[in-house]
Amino acid sequence: MLTDSLAEAIAAAEKIIEAAPHIRDEQDLVEGYEYLAGSIRASIQMSWAYDKEFPFFASSTGPFTKMGLDNPDTLYFHANIRDDCEYVVSGRRGTTTDLSFQILKGDYSPVDVPDSLTAFDDRQIHLDADGAFELRFGRASDLPNHFTLGEGSSMLVVREVYSDWSAERGTLTIARVGEEGEAPAPRSKDAVAKRYSTAGKMLLGRLNTFLQFPRWFYLNLEVNTMTEPRLTPGGLSTQYSSAGHYELTDDQAMIITVPKSDAPYQGFQLGSMWYISLDYINHQTSLTSEQAQTDPDGNIRLVISERNPGVANWIETLGHARGYAQFRWQRVSREMTADDGPTAEVVDFDEVSAYLPYHEHNKISADDFARRITARRTAVATRMLG
User: For the whole prediction, is pTM greater than 0.90?
Assistant: First the structure.
């Protein structure tokens, strides 16, 4: 059958999920099967969206196609490109905190991270008064808003980053210069079969790669600690991150203290052992500095725990006794140092209040916390439209 290649890949992918080294119980496995479903969907979408002659921006990851410790505060888009063509990217800047562009060479694999050939944010481009812009990517040029495509350029990635989840997203289109009046040729049966085969290969590569990633960047760290801020791997020149992994019992909490940054975007999130975000729509598993409560001393104190400590900055673990923790700072204008980074301390859950110097200031009622969750659902539903 034409779809045999994909079916065989899905069967192999299920075995990869079932053999994952972190699985301890049935819940871990159930989450793996859900992760597999999102990965199948994403791989099919990416295979059919692959067109360097007539490119368009596709959503790279979302609530149901998660991968690579996806950031709850970011909309990810990508378009496939050729290094010997010229492309025009047009759009209008929304009110989000950051809008960044990156040219990648190659792809993620279980043994490598793709090279970043170019990375910049909208501070480096001209925007009209109404936020409209037009960028050109191609051969070397001194024209404004023009960026050179280096040898091997294969993908343009765009990130739209929210600190305030009620911000408005912008618009974005891409076109290859010279495609006017042209159209893709009708697909043959062989071409469709190749797409199914490609989707299967993407699926297996995706699963193998992002099960390997944490071993490179997280699991070699001491548990329940966070690193100093460091440039995020992958060539993002204006993004720093602090990584860690946690393991807590139901009777423990981890209190993370971090200065509220002067960087326009500062965000924290938890991830499961499948290296994907936890449910950030219906639960507070992430916070930006704008969403978080800042103490009078200028620090943000987050309480990571399974049980509810009754404070505004509770980060829910949702039954995940183990997982990943990540800070990101974006749109930075200076080098981040250890003084900008977090400290972490594991305490008995019943003693959380004693470790919060502004506990009275931090307390929140059940009704007010429920309103925070309602606001999260509304904001995600709004930004995912279109």
Answer: yes
